[in-house]
Amino acid sequence: MVRTIVVALGGNAIKRAEERGTAEEQFRNVRETCKHILEIIKGGYKVVITHGNGPQAGNLLIQQEEASEVVPPQPLDIVGAMTQGQIGYMLQQTLINYLKEAGLNTPVVTVLTQVLVDKNDPDFHDPSKPVGPFYTEEEARKLAKKKSYVIKKVKPVGEKMYRRVVPSPNPIAIIERNAIRSLIDAGTIVIACGGGGIPVMMKEDGSLEGVEAVIDKDLAGEKLAEVVGADIFLILTDVEKVKLNYGKLNEKDLDRMTLGEARRYLKEGHFLPGSMKPKIVACVRFLESNGEKAIITSLDKATEALEGKTGTLISR
Ligand code: ADP
Ligand code: MG
Q1: Domain positions in the chain
Q2: What's the mean pLDDT in 153-177?
Q3: Which atom of ligand 1 is nearest to the CA of 54?
Q4: 1-119+174-212 falls under which CATH superfamily?
Q5: What is the pTM for the complete model shown?
Q6: Residue 132: band (very low, low, confident or very high) from pLDDT cuts 50, 70, 90
């Protein structure tokens, strides 16, 4: 039986930390990324792709702010939609080209995805996710007043230590789930839930409305994996293996964790919030919802990890 795999791409799959983010740079990275995805497809898996959008949304927010006197800045839900389209386009085009080269004419489609969140999610009361540019104290004060942004100090020193923070609510449901399933059943490679999806809430009358928030891409990717009935959830980031005692002298690579161990290590605080912690939480949820195995590794080790040769495997 063909196994379905959801691949969650991290920031470095599209823009490296040291790069400015020109279209050339991003396409170069996307080509590298798609080579690895092609290998997974050739391995006989049904592949569903999701990705982050932090660097792209950050750049777009800077662009918007710089031009705000001339062109009105758009809210975060629209920024999410714009970057989903941007990254989806790059992945979709590159992957189609590679598939064609390999003699395959599998269609690739990006689904602009909305993800339902709860308007009573605790994160709406205490926003935690930094977005966009860094500000000086004075700029921060002005923006907080003018745009009612929540602004927090995110660095201990420097001229620009402040950043806007937005809620990062839990993903509850994927609005386009049936369309995504139909596409996959028809043999399409789907790219969905980019940047965690566009956060939307449901009003009393059942209608949807975008919210200014950012959903964690690994948690949204896990929801996607549930919705498509994935066997494997593969998180591709910038580390080959998850570490125990991260950053300490007794730090050690983990080849494997059981569900129980993952829960215990989460409690013991081995994984940093905002980076590794949501990935482990996502893997735990995936296994709890009957997923077979979750793997965390680096992009260039994807196929080796699927063969069980490296990465961190999380299974029951
Ligand atoms: P992505 O863009 O792929 O989501 P993140 O930066 O969010 O990447 O997460 C990967 C990072 O998580 C690693 O580069 C590392 O700095 C950090 N990290 C935190 N805790 C751990 C841990 N226990 N083991 C490995 N990496 C960890
Ligand atoms: Mg991340």
Answers
A1: 1-119+174-212, 129-166, 233-316
A2: 94
A3: 2
A4: Acetylglutamate kinase-like (3.40.1160.10)
A5: 0.96
A6: confident
